[in-house]
Amino acid sequence: MVPELGVIEGYFGRPWSHADRKHVMTRLRDIGYLWFHYAPKADTFLRRRWREPHPSDALAELVELSGHCRSLGMRFGVGLSPYELYRDFSGPGRADFIAKVRALDDLGIDDLAILFDDTRGDVPELALREADIVHTALANTRASRVLMCPTYYSDDRMLDVVFGERPEGYLDELGRRLDPRVGVYWTGEEICAREHSVSHLARVAESLGRKPTLWDNYPVNDGPRMSRHLHLRGFTGRPSVIGPHLAGHAINPALQPHLSLIPAATLAASYRDGATYAYMRAFREAARACAGDALASMLETDLHALQDRGIDDLGDDRRRLRQRYAAVAHPMAVEIVRWLDGADTVDSWVEEA
User: Fold this and answer.
1) Which is catalytic among the residues 43, 111, 117, 118?
2) pLDDT at site 54
3) What structural domains and CATH numbers belong to the chain?
4) Is 118 left (phi over 0), alpha (psi -120 to 50) or beta?
5) Cβ neighbours, 10 Å, residue 255
6) Residue 179 catalytic?
């Protein structure tokens, strides 16, 4: 069983351009992806300034993006992070939230995701408060599908270190309180999970009372460390046997939209090929399809430098690589040059949240 594949644009750092989103969505639909959730952390009108309307130009782009996705037969959704609303969801806060939900409806959304990720969570009755907010969204949206991302969206203890100790029994209580119609995003055993197992996903599904929707943090490369590497290799650690245990599988893409297409295509191949999947073969096939033979060969030759060594360890190779890719007229080559110039590094993702 192949779960529905989607994209959650949930990274920190500079958001993709409108034109790049439309191009990437078109290519991803050809690959087999069925939905797209717009939720870049840098869109402050979906996070810290969520009570304010989007500027008119940004609003027009979202309406156009919604229409573009629907024309492709893809579901379009928005991820709203009502910053610290769970601290006081009475009176004005509830009214502002309902107004925001209805404003997002006007974009033409099929999905609405309420995201509590990457904010403080050491507050009393956290699961109860979050469920109340999500149910209010469910009752007031015209979207046909509602999802949420918990504050503690992984077993990873780093979340407790950064955002406060998670309440005891948080995930189980959230599962009991949430309406069964609500989907739940989950990243796995770690924030950036190396692999996903049937046993782990089954345990999470038991706690939540539903199959999780996987928020897969690959090929995302935000943050101070990851932004200094390009994530290009094919997916590993996602065996096709996990499919029946998922409500959906969404990738969080890289800061480089065109380059993200290569690993995205390999995930589809992993589910399609099952036990015969080979990640480097899938990489080669995806790179040729997305970049053409010549550029694909260059990417494979430089894969270790771009993905493993990273920008800080390239030394003199950094200039050589820049010259090499600057000579190629292709959007992927342009993205590599920009990355080599240091334009995509993210210095502090917590403060930007």
Assistant:
1) 118
2) 96
3) 5-284 (3.20.20.80)
4) left
5) 28
6) no
